[in-house]
Amino acid sequence: MPEGHVLHRLARHLNERYRDAPLEATSPQGRFDTSPIDATHLLSAEAFGKHLFLTFEPGEIVHIHLGLIGSLRFEPVDDVWGQIRLRLSKGDEAANLRGPQACRYLSPAEMQAVLDRTGEDPLRPDANPDALWARVSASGRSIGSLMMDQKLFAGVGNIYRAEPLFRLGISPFLPGREVTREEFDALWADVVKLMRYGVEHGRIDTVRPEHSPEAMGREPRKDDHGGEVYVYRRAGEPCFVCGAPIAVKKVEGRNLFWCPGCQG
Fold it and tell me: What's the domain range around 247?
C-alpha cells in the first residue's frame, strides 16, 4: 500500500496540471459513472493520510483510496491499457486510476465523516501533534503498532514506521504510555522530515550521509521501493551502525523490522 507521501505527490501534480481547463472524464472499465464530472473543472485535489479527495466545479467530490494494489499514473493520453476505473484526460496526458480500494462520490458530510476517522497527517500544516501525543501517551499498545494505525498516524506505513524508530533508537515494542514527550516530539519531527523528503524526491531515503553507499563503500540498495534505508526489508543483514543482524517479526499481519542492537 502506498505511503502517504505518494498521495501528496499525486495531489500536487493534479493541482499543478489539471485545474486550468475542463477535463474529459471517462471510465474505460465501465465501473464508475463519470457523467457528473465530465467536461468540468477540477477545483482541488487534497490528500489526507492515504485518502485523496478530488473536488470538481459542480461540487462533486470523488474519494479515492488506492488500497493494496491501486495506482494512479500520469501517462500519455493514447496509452490505454489495463482496467482503468477513472481516467481524467487533459491535452496529451491522462491520469489513469487502476485497481483502487475505493473510487466513489461523497457528499461534504460523508467526506467529513472520513476525515473524522483519520488521524494526524505529518504532511499537512493543520496536523495537531499535541492531540496525537495525548492518545499515544494514554495507550498500552506498542509505539510500533500505534504508528500503523491510520486513526492516529495518518499516511504512515511500514517504512515510515520502521525507519524513524531506528533513527531515534526507540524500540518498536515500547508501550505508548512509556514513550516520553521528548521522544514523541523527536519521532514526530523525524517522520515529518522524512515524509517531506519523499514528497519532493519521489523516493524514500532515510540513511544519514555517513551511512550512504558512497561513505560506507557498499553497493546501493536494490528494491522495488528504491531509496536507502536502515532496517526496512533488510532482515538478517548487518546494521549499518552496530553490525547486529536486522530482525523481523510479523506483528498484526505486517512485517516489523528493527535492530536489536540499536533499539534494544
Answer: 129-263
